[in-house]
Structures are given as C-alpha cells and as structure tokens.
Amino acid sequence: MDVSATEISAPTQAQPHNTNDCETVRAILARTGDKWSVLIVKMMGSGPQRFSALRRGITGISQRMLTLTLRNLERDGLVLRTVTPSTPPRVDYELTRLGHSLWIIMESFGQWAIAHRSEIETARARFDARNH
C-alpha cells in the first residue's frame, strides 16, 4: 500500500493534548529530524546507495557519524542494509516501505520550504528590524 499526500494531510479537527503522544512524536522527531538522517533519507529517495556514495554525497558527515546514523535508521526500520559477499564486501542501503513513507513527508516539507522561502525571509527581516 502506497502512502499518498491525502493520507498525511492535517486532521480536520484538533485532537485533545496527549502527553504520551507528544513524547512519542518528540522521540521519533529527534531521531528522524536530525540533519544527517534527513540528508541520508533524501539521498536514498532516488534508490539504493552504497556507503561510499552516501559519504561522498553528504558534505561534512564523518564516517563514524554516517555509520551511527545508518545503524539507527536501520534499527528504526527505515533503512535496509544488504551485504553482498565479495572482496571487499559490498554494502548497500535502501529505504524500507516505512522509510519511503518518511521520504515522502521530507520531500513535501522540502518543497514547502523552497516555495515559502521568500515569505519566511521577509518575515525574519521584519522581525529583526522591530527587535534591534
């Protein structure tokens, strides 16, 4: 079953505040919303990636941080790691169905940010002018 934009749209009615739900969302956002996870998921949106391709494609990420982030994404069920026996071993990473559903949300958010960049910059400039 594919996830469509209509399935991830905002609820039509505000839900009552639930502290347990907030903690759940906070914990998941902390893992999936950090800059390295976002960039890794973004790169994998185009298909499986080798570790070296991810390392080259994500400016500033260390080998250790890439390894840790990939492990965490794999642990959360967002990324599948496949080892092909060879010399040296070939390791590929790809999004799972769950990971792809996250990519859809991240892609939509990125498009929203780009579409509204000038409005946000204008609002920031107006705010800064009032508060300096």
From TrEMBL:
Keywords: DNA-binding, Transcription, Transcription regulation
Boundaries of every HTH hxlR-type domain copy: 22-121
Family matches, as Pfam families: HxlR
Origin organism lineage: Bacteria, Pseudomonadati, Pseudomonadota, Alphaproteobacteria, Acetobacterales
Protein name as catalogued: Transcriptional regulator
UniProt cross-references to InterPro entries, sorted A to Z: HTH_HxlR, WH-like_DNA-bd_sf, WH_DNA-bd_sf
GO molecular function, one term: DNA binding
PANTHER family the UniProt entry points to: TRANSCRIPTIONAL REGULATOR, MARR FAMILY, TRANSCRIPTIONAL REGULATORY PROTEIN
